[in-house]
Design a protein that fits this description.
The chain is α/β, with parallel strands linked by helices. 30% of the residues lie in helices and 24% in strands. The strands form two sheets. Strands 1, 2, 3, 4, 5, 6, 7 and 8 form an eight-stranded mixed β-sheet that branches. An eight-stranded parallel β-sheet has the order 11-10-9-12-13-16-14-15.
Length: 314
């Protein structure tokens, strides 16, 4: 028999996510992936005709939970600026019926930040004390929320070009953690930082690791812009590189694609991914040079959170 799936809007998704330990769900997901209990296909990019945009499908299978699904996210070109939305469909592996259709905006923000948090916990030096965040939007705020307790941060610097004209956001960031200081420049924010979180929607480099005064952990996320990257592609050759999933990330991450085509970088240089780290197949890196963590956003992350939302909703 067919069934009608729950339809969850953004507001309800936000309410349910507040009751979920998102990083812990993702840790379980990556352990399941390492053990062969989950399947992560590559992202599927489909371009609209006449340069009107594209959409990306993020797929995943969680066999132990008996669900599979897809998040579909369009990038729609408009005169007033691109429009990006996303919805996640959760399906039952037992009945083949839809279980949930969820606005994925809140899911995407939460899983993006929590994936970085899992990576920071696994990769950052235990004695790391200075955190820098580049970006100040909802994704940056979520990063701060998930990462503020992972180390004994003695200082948290945040920089975004818009913050000087946005006292409300600056105040919100400092409410999230009183250790936050608003930097007046990107350079000031990252000076002496042990961990640098790049949380922007930039299509091109945000910082150049070569300018840093000491080795640091640098994390980077994705946006829908074609071949988007937050560090210069050639910088990968001088860093220890990790990612969320080594089988799929190099085929989508902009700086990895460009570095492979133009700068002689080899995807086999990736030291490990989150499945490797959480199953202890690779060790925490030393810091004789920078460590770079790149996430592209996995379908499994969306499916795992959608399943958690579904379990609460039902």
């Amino acid at each position: 028999m067919s069934s009608t799936p729950y339809v969850i809007d953004q507001t309800r998704a936000r309410e349910l996510l507040a009751r979920i330990d998102v990083p812990q769900i993702l840790r379980k997901l990556f352990r399941d992936l390492s053990a062969g209990h989950a399947v992560q296909p590559a992202q599927q990019l489909v371009e609209f005709p006449q340069g009107a945009g594209d959409f990306i499908n993020y797929l995943g299978v969680l066999a132990k939970d008996g669900v599979y699904g897809v998040k579909t996210s369009p990038y729609i070109v408009r005169e007033q600026g691109p429009l990006v939305t996303a919805w996640t469909l959760l399906m039952s592996m037992q009945t083949g019926q839809p279980l949930l259709l969820c606005d994925a905006g809140e899911l995407t923000t939460a899983r993006t930040a929590a994936t970085t948090a899992v990576a920071v916990d696994a990769l950052a030096p235990l004695e790391a004390s200075r955190l820098a965040i580049i970006g100040s939007g909802k994704v940056a705020q979520a990063h701060l929320n998930y990462i503020k307790t992972l180390r004994d941060w003695q200082g948290i610097s945040v920089y975004s070009p818009s913050l000087s004209e946005d006292p409300a956001t600056a105040s919100l960031l400092q409410t999230l953690d009183p250790r936050v200081s608003i930097a007046d420049s990107r350079e000031t924010a990252i000076t002496e930082a042990d961990v640098i979180l790049l949380c922007t929607s930039s299509a091109g480099p945000v910082i150049d690791p070569a300018t840093l005064s000491k080795p640091a952990l640098i994390t980077s996320i994705s946006t829908n812009a074609p071949r988007a990257h937050e560090v210069p592609p050639q910088s990968l050759n001088d860093m220890q590189v990790f990612c969320d999933y080594r089988l799929t990330t190099p085929g989508s991450a902009g700086e990895m694609l460009i570095a492979g085509e133009r700068h002689g970088w080899d995807r086999n240089a990736i030291v490990g991914d989150l499945a490797d780290l959480l199953s202890e197949k690779v060790q925490r890196p030393d810091y004789h040079r920078h460590v770079f963590f790149r996430s592209i956003g996995l379908g499994l992350e969306d499916i795992a959170l959608a399943n958690a939302v579904y379990q609460l909703q039902r």
